Amino acid sequence: MPLPDTRPPVEPGGSRGLSIFPVEGLGEVRPGDDLAALLAEALVASGTGGSSVPGGLDDGDVLVVTQKVVSKAEGKIVEIDAADPEAKRALVESESVRILRRRDELLITETRHGFVCANAGVDFSNVASGTASLLPVDPDRSARRIREVLEHRHHVSVGVIVSDTFGRTWRNGVTDVAIGIAGIAGIVDLRGTPDATGRVLESTEVCVADELAGAAELVMGKDRGVPAAVLRGVDPGWLRPGSVAAEIVRPSGEDLFR
Q1: Which one, of 174, 22, 141, lies nearest residue 73 by Cα?
Q2: Which of 178, 191, 204, 229 allows an S-S link to 216, with CB 3.0 to 4.6 Å?
């Protein structure tokens, strides 16, 4: 018997809404684990009523996975004394290609990926005491691996986003952004298209991958132990090959502030 269609109804003259579901029951991820298989298992349980993603994973869904569990599965966990500021500084510098600003123990750095962020993405939260997580070597590749396993083993075509928490220049607070993507656009270019009044847009490029990552974080949270979420109802036109490195990271030659 086919599973019921859980997607929001289409309003006349409108588009589907966006639904966001936490992926629960994943359990602790350890170095060497097959993360895609663990995610698929949790999502299969969802489809049989074991969790909160109705019907499990479906074609056209977008799966958002936190950097932390990706880094754990890929063994990007190092031992370090978090109380030792010199050890922390040395680790951050080893993960950076450039130090942009320093303030006490805070460093704003550029990573090998081209990300400009606090402390090169080195993170001490949600990992065992005495350890820290580092960013994946190639987050786009990490997203592709998860997507390929889901497609080949479970015959479902989805977008995958690896998300992480970043601050924003000139704004307080943090939000989740995409650091790796597969099967989902990074940027949707609206230049040359009309706005609601018919005026042609000249410079509008929307980072939909970041918007989806931020939306997913609303159901994952920082302290709930939910490292993944499924977004349903994403514009089908956004489901295409994508890359954070190629689309989203701004080349330094185009940056007015570096």
Answers
A1: 141
A2: 229
What are the structural domains, with CATH classification, of the chain? 19-74+136-249 (3.30.1330.100), 77-135 (3.90.1660.10)
Which of 19-23, 114-118, 150-154, 247-251 bottoms out in mean pLDDT, i.e. has the lowest?
150-154
Record the pTM: 0.88
Tokens of 182: 């597969």
Cα distances from 45 to residues 4, 27, 49, 50, 162, in angstroms, run 16, 13, 6, 5, 22
> How far, CA to CA in Å, does 158 sit from each of 25, 95, 130, 246?
20, 31, 36, 20
Closest CA to 40 of 20, 68, 61: 61
Residue at 239: amino acid letter: L
Q: Give pLDDT tens digits for 93-143.
A: 999 999 999 998 889 999 999 999 999 999 988 888 899 999 999 999 999
DSSP assignment of 196-213, as one string? TTSPBPSS-EE-HHHHHH
Among 216, 73, 64, CA closest to 137: 73
Place of tokens 């220049």: 169
Kindly tell me if the per-residue pLDDT of 159 is higher than 80: yes
Mention every residue, 6+ apart, whose C-beta is less than 8 A from residue 120: 92, 93, 95, 96, 107, 109, 111, 135
Q: Are 46 and 211 in contact (CB under 8 A)?
A: no
- What CA–CA distance (Å, rounded) separates 65 from 11? 30
